Amino acid sequence: MSTLLLRLAAPMQSWGASSRFKKLTTEREPTKSGVIGLVAAALGRERNADIGDLSSLKFGVRIDQQGVLLRDYHTAHNPRNTKLAFISDRYYLCDAVFVVGLESDDESLLDEIKKALESPRFPLYLGRRSCPPTGPIVLGISQVSITEAFKMQDWQAQNWYMRKRSHEQNIDLEIVVDAPFNTPHAFVKRDLPISFNDEFRRYRFRSTTSDLQGVSVLNPEWSEPVDELFEGDAGGKATEHDPFLALEVSDVSFESRN
């Protein structure tokens, strides 16, 4: 088996799985239907094309940087009738970074997907057209399972986020991976794409498991804590500077000027 790893990062992402009417929600991690749609666009497949080979890929997500949920109060007006407006609530994930894995025994298919993502036929976006990806998507192909690939991959969070957690040498990352329906503690969502045809989109249920401490990675921005001033030492050498020395009064004699 082999696994293709992708890095999905952008100022905003939105991965809807249960959006209805005027409330367009987002999941907390990329959906399989959204990523398969991204792959199909890169391959240049039309919406009515067969995607069975893509849907059969084992899918998983490593959450490298959770991001922040944003609610957009969205209005759209009809230019012919300014009194009419369509109002909706649209939700996004801001500053999130994910590592997505696609596992298959067919390495030639993964290689085809890799090349397509590096030179896509159609524009790529992360959930919605207003969310283009930042930087290269492809991380590479490894001849290991999806879980092992997650363990081998370096932390992909943004540098400022790594520095924010510089006091932690090892970072535990949550992973969400496809699993059989009879797996204990698995949860089910309607997120397996069958057809992207505009006239009749079809999805089935898929089962996944989540592990909050599934992978531990090294933080490249980690730094050793410095001992408290005056009470400890830094690098085995005591601190010599004492700011209170400037406040000490030297022996000075004052003469009376009566």
What this model shows, in words?
The protein has 258 residues and is of the alpha+beta class. It has one domain: Alpha-Beta Plaits (2-Layer Sandwich). Helices cover 16% and strands 39% of the residues. The protein is built from five helices and eleven strands. The chain has helices at residues 32-43, 52-55, 107-118, 146-152, 159-164, and strands at 2-13, 23-24, 58-65, 68-78, 81-104, 138-142, 170-178, 187-195, 202-218, 233-234, 237-238. Strands 1, 2, 3, 4, 5, 6, 7, 8 and 9 form a nine-stranded mixed sheet that branches. Strand 8 and strand 9 (202-218) form a beta hairpin. The longest helix has 12 residues, at 32-43. The relative contact order is 0.20. Residues 228-235 have low confidence and may be disordered.
